[in-house]
Every structure is written in structure tokens, then in C-alpha cells.
């Protein structure tokens, strides 16, 4: 008998508090599996955000630190600078990273801090009850834009991977989703590559993962999956946004 | 090939993501069971057709599925 697949050793036995069909669970799993496969689990330090994934420190089987809202990149900067040989990552949602923590992430990327950020973009504020996020799509309904977001009132949604890719300190930015097996495999490859680049001291690495929020989108998990593919992917294109060759990335 | 798929059914939230990725269409929600969380958990309807690809396990957000093959 051979085990083909079992729960990753990189996750604790704690029961996830996420809603049914939420992609956070899949993304947690991919990060954990990547750390295990790269042999980094014992050397990894994660930084949790505020938002739905605020309790992520209970789920990852490595050292974890909780940060103030949006300040995970600042905490990770300190951790990475004092532990330069550890694999340091932040795990942040769109309310945390693109809204209140926008300054922190931009400046961490500008400085080329050598940690990895996993950015979960579900186009809404999940934990607080479905308010409009900077990433909410035009026409998408939220509790603070009940007729749908309009460009006139709230502007166009922010594309964080593209924004950060303009900074020299950011050596790798890729956007992935986890709606089906092919995309899950791609997402895992991207996360592993980001950790490898971090351990090669290349610079700041950023993985944006598109995620569903079935509860606050008001859909079943399956319908939310389809909605993501039909609406989010056209606005947030998947793929490598930026990849700098290692020799050009001497940001020390 | 003989495969074995084990569900930690008490932790299943019935999201049905696993039912969409099975190439053999043998993963389904068991409407006759309610677990301790109050959901109908997923199960395999015909284990003899299973090819142990582990797609259901890979997509499960709660990592409750273990796949083995003999």
C-alpha cells in the first residue's frame, strides 16, 4: 500500500475555521507542502495578517508571528534581517495588504526585503462582513456598495502584482488561482519558486492567489469558483508578472 | 489497481469542490448522512473505478481526504 496523498506535515491538526469552499484552506496547504518539499519547514517563520486568515498561526506547523493589521511586511522585515538564513513569509489578504497595509508592502518591496509574500485576493473584505475592498471588481456588489462598485465613486480595482512589479527590489511576482487541479499545480510551482528565490537571496518575492469568498459573494462554492474564472481572471490576468534573472538582482 | 480513499467525514464542510475535479465522477455528496458539523459530507460512490489520482484530496480545502493505492 502506498499513500498517494495525505494531509501535509506542514499543517497542524487544528480544524480550519474557514467557511465551506473558501480557498484559504487550499492556499494554506500549498504553502505548507512547498515548505515541506523544499526542506524548509523547520527553518520557516510565517507572519499572519489580520483578516480571515488571522488564525493562520494555528494551522501552519512552523514558527509563526501575528502582526498588527497590514504590518506583516514590517514584522517580516525585522524577522528576516535578524534571521537571514530562515525562510520568512507573510500571508496576507486583500484588506490587509492592499488597503491598510499598502504602504508597508510597497516599501518592503522597494527595499527588496528577502521574504516571500502570499497575497490572497478574494475581492472583498471577508472577516468584517463583505465590505468593498480596493480589489472589488467594477459592478461587484458588497455591503458598502450595494448597487455594485462604480468607477466614478471608488475608482478602478488595484492590481497589486503589477504595482509591485514596477519596483526593482521585487524580483518575482506571479498571479495564480486554485480553482482546479491544473491551476493548483501551477500555484504550487509558483510558491516553491518564490521560496527558492528567497533562499538564493535574490530579493522580494510576491505570489498573488485569486480566491473565492462564497459567503460574502452570496454564492455556493461551485458557483463562486465559476464566478472567479469568469470575472476575476479577465481583470487580474494569471501568470508571471515579473521575473528578474538572479544576476541582475543584487539588492543587498 | 485498487485504491482506497478515506474521508475524515466529521471535518467535511460539504463544499463540493472535490466533486468537480474527479475525472471518473465518482465523488459525490452523501445526502443520507449529516456529520457533526451539520453538513452532508462527500464520499466515493464507486471505489472500483478510482484511479488514485488524488485530485479530490488536492483540492479539499480542509485536507480531510487521504488517498492510497495498492
From TrEMBL, chain A:
Domain Thiamine pyrophosphate enzyme TPP-binding positions: 58-209
Source organism: Oscillibacter valericigenes
Domain of life of the native organism: Bacteria
Protein name (Swiss-Prot/TrEMBL): 2-oxoglutarate oxidoreductase
Keywords: Oxidoreductase
Pfam families for this protein: TPP_enzyme_C
PANTHER family: 2-OXOGLUTARATE OXIDOREDUCTASE SUBUNIT KORB-RELATED (PTHR48084), SUBUNIT OF PYRUVATE:FLAVODOXIN OXIDOREDUCTASE (PTHR48084:SF3)
InterPro entries, per database record: 2-oxoacid:Fd_oxidoreductase, THDP-binding, TPP_enzyme_TPP-bd
Signal peptide (UniProt feature, chain positions): none
Automatic annotation (TrEMBL), chain B:
Residue ranges of domain 4Fe-4S ferredoxin-type in the record: 3-32, 41-70
Domain of life the protein comes from: Bacteria
Name of the protein this chain belongs to: 4Fe-4S dicluster domain-containing protein
Pfam families assigned: Fer4_10
Classification via SUPFAM superfamilies: 4Fe-4S ferredoxins
Keywords: Iron, Iron-sulfur, Metal-binding
GO molecular function: iron-sulfur cluster binding; metal ion binding
Organism encoding this protein: Candidatus Oscillibacter excrementigallinarum
Record's keyword annotation contains Magnesium: no
